[in-house]
Amino acid sequence: MEFSGGWDSKAVLVDGRWVERRPRRPSSAELLRREASLMPWLAPRLPLPVPVPEIIGADPLVVRHEFVPGEPLDESGEASASIGHRLGLFLRALHEAPADEAVRHGLQPAGEARREHGELIGRFRTEVVPLLPADRRPTASAFLETASDPPFDTVVHGDLGPEHVLADGGAPTGVIDFGDAHAGDRAIDLAWALNGTAPPFARAVAAAYGPSDGDRARALVWHRLGPWHEVLHGIDTGTPAYVRSGLDGVLDRLADGHPAA
């Protein structure tokens, strides 16, 4: 059975037990290789199940891991506070993993992640800002300045949203898709959890995790930055629907300056 593997990989369920993943593009292959190197070291440190892929084919690249059961959380953010509490504990454990050791096991290092982030901010300025209404461009450009220099010192998932948190019967069953893991800003993993969910869920995450005021502020910046990536994905893949949806999200979140929970 084939199911969505995200923007970077295709995924197929084999024999009801194994998930086999292949890169959608040559540039995505390195993400899968790094995930296969990192996760056997990282998984035992985490309080929820995660995929632990192994490489079973090199050319073309194929990785396989045991199926993590459960359904993605509702995108409305109405998941229970108990799931939020467990997710907060999970993130705290993830972020306490030693970054230097994680890099030795395959995590994308800080210098590389910082360079890629700078390149993305540059593309946002040159490719996304011009697509916005003229009267919103100054605000958008000023916002990008606030997003240009986050810390890069923590093991992060890097793409945590409702589609990557699985649950069943009101309890979390796992966190998936670590292809974007890197040494980065812990607040990126709090962006959706604190700003894109219902207040009881967000409060439960915060109570279990214990974010600082700085973490909260940067999490809101990362949350507002999310749709900018969708615009670029639409541009890169020639998908106008992603561009339109992303631009709508950019404008909505620029206008939404609410604080984190």
From TrEMBL:
<protein>
    <submittedName>
        <fullName>Aminoglycoside phosphotransferase (APT) family kinase protein</fullName>
    </submittedName>
</protein>
<keyword id="KW-0418">Kinase</keyword>
<dbReference type="GO" id="GO:0016301">
    <property type="term" value="F:kinase activity"/>
</dbReference>
<dbReference type="Pfam" id="PF01636">
    <property type="entry name" value="APH"/>
</dbReference>
<dbReference type="InterPro" id="IPR002575">
    <property type="entry name" value="Aminoglycoside_PTrfase"/>
</dbReference>
<feature type="domain" description="Aminoglycoside phosphotransferase">
    <location>
        <begin position="2"/>
        <end position="219"/>
    </location>
</feature>
<dbReference type="InterPro" id="IPR051678">
    <property type="entry name" value="AGP_Transferase"/>
</dbReference>
<dbReference type="InterPro" id="IPR011009">
    <property type="entry name" value="Kinase-like_dom_sf"/>
</dbReference>
<keyword id="KW-0808">Transferase</keyword>
